[in-house]
Amino acid sequence: MKVDGGFGLSMGGLDGAGDLARDAEGAGYDGIWTAETSHDPFFPLLVAAQNTSTIELGTGIAVAFARSPMTLANQAYDLQAYSQGRFILGLGSQIQAHITKRFSMPWSRPAARMRELVLAMRAIWACWDEGEKLDFRGEFYTHTLMTPFFNPGKNPFGVPKVFLAAVGERMTETAGEVCDGIICHGFTTERYLKEVTIPALERGAKTGGKTLADVEISLPAFVVTGSTEEQMAVSAKGTREQIAFYGSTPAYRGVLELHGWGELQTELNGLSKQGKWKEMGNLITDDILHTFAVVAEPDGVADGIKARFGGAITRVSFYAPYKSDPDTWLPVVAALKST
User: Would you tell me which of 4, 73, 137, 237 could form a disulfide with 124, CB atoms 3.0–4.6 Å apart?
Assistant: First the structure.
């Protein structure tokens, strides 16, 4: 099981990016990922590539529908070359309101559009890397023009891996069919992973002429930990609030319904519309918390992750929505990588 870390940066995500990536590599992390929230997800990885030599560098995630396949293909191709083959393009769809109201971009049939976007990128890379004629014609995207002036030529490190963030079955099938990996949502339980995600991923892989073994499964696992009762309480509070936030989203209702908690989504959604974010966390019972999160002291976190997800996932990171000493995770990384 590979163990990944993430950037926690301000100032555009660039100040300290080199040091953070170098420290992560030295600590034994296999990969480090950026998120597209308040800053660009690609720039920090350029700095990280310059300051590291072995750690994988990924976007977790870049918003796919905010960009065209050509734009994404170019950024990913350059980062793959600059990192000497260590880049992973992690994509996500975001939700309709953000795509149409924040990015002012079109939204329609997200799984079908995502499938086509990835295939369009692959067609562009085949043109650049293998010399194929660019002639991609789809329902959402068309790419038929590539002159020598705009062709970067063959990439000495090949084309980058593409991972796709997915929760629902259709997007998960898309990940299995056209991508190299899936980024599961933190709002994923062991039962949902094994009963819904993996079967859908396997169906998609079969459609794409692959097997499940050809697709990496990355999971940011919710973890509640601390060395004192006070630290554990702070950890639990922050995690309850994060679970509640995700639980209020209609797109994730299926996870709750699988456990018989469907009506909780309705209640959380209502509170979110009133801006009662703190109150929402109070609805996350101990049972719900322990279902979504590994709750353990630091020396028990690795065993907790392995007990739930060992053999089912290929990469793991720690979803801890609270302040924690970075040194807390070093023994956990070592314990996970020892198996």
Answer: 73
